[in-house]
Structure formats: C-alpha cells, structure tokens
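Q: What would this chain look like folded?
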Amino acid sequence: MPSTIKLKSLERAQSVYVIHMSKFELIEKIERDAHSYEKIYHGCSQCVLKALQEHLQLGNGEAFKAASALAGGIARMGETCGALTGGILAVGLAYGREKLEDTAYSQAYAMAMELSIDLYRRFEKEFGSTKCWDIQKSLFGRAFDFKKPGEREEFVRAGGYEKCPEVVKKAARLAAEAILKGGTR
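A: My prediction, written as structure tokens:
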C-alpha cells in the first residue's frame, strides 16, 4: 500500500501519494527532475514547478502554463529568480486559498504565506539574493540580458546550462521541504 503524506490546511486537505518512497527519497527525486528539466528544456520557473507538481500531485497544466513568462527574473527582466517563483507557486497550489472570497486572513492563506516567506528567506540565504541578475553575477561574474542580441549565446558559453540547473535543483529542494514541512504540522 502506498504511503501517504498529508498536506493540510485547516480548511481542506490534499493527499499526496508516494509509492514506497521516503521523504528524503522524494525530495531527491524532485531535485533530480527539476535539474534535468532545466538542462533539457530550460525555463527555471516551469522546471521547478513541474517537478513539484508531478511528485506532490499539485495543480494542473494551467498553473504550469501560467509560469511561462516567469523565467529570467520575470519575463527576462532580471528581477525575482524564476526558480524561486516556481517554488512559491507550488506552495500556493499546496496550501493557498481556493476562492477569492476566502478572506486574506484565512488559515489556508496564512499557511501559504508563512511557508512562502520561509522559502524566500532560505533561498535568499543560500544564494545571497533573490534577484536573477544578482545570482547570475555571483555564478558568472556578470548578468546576461537575454533581450539583447548575443547575450543568450554568451550565457551558454559561460556555462549557463550547467550552473542555472543547480539553482533550479536547490530551489526545488527548498520548495519541497517547505511544502512537506507544512504537511507535518
């Protein structure tokens, strides 16, 4: 019989079915898949979100589609890292309010906020910033503006598809830990 990890908000509960897998193994699988998706397909926000959705049974294709323009620091603007936003989207799928009419102070909303704040702070501690271009400067010694001709090629030459998957991997781990932490309360 599969083991079950419960994701609970006090207003509702979702069950995540994990077949013969420990929490540690589950997190490692999420990390590996997120890393692999980033290396193969790119789009950091969607790669983190997809790995979390698959292994924690979160949301649907609409949420994944909505994350399309979050890569590169939100529409390649160098702002909040897409890997972090993908993780925060997954936290919202696991614990967020289901209807707009649910008050801002609902227990589901409060849980999603608390876990997202924790994820944000842990990500910032890990990388020294939550901004895409700051993280790029740390990894490569400079930032790449994909809106400018030639910048994508420079990113690839600098090892972008080796280094950014590591950020995606860590963001997926931190998000999975946050989501599973919420489920153990």
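The CA atoms of residues 118 and 178 lie 7 Å apart.
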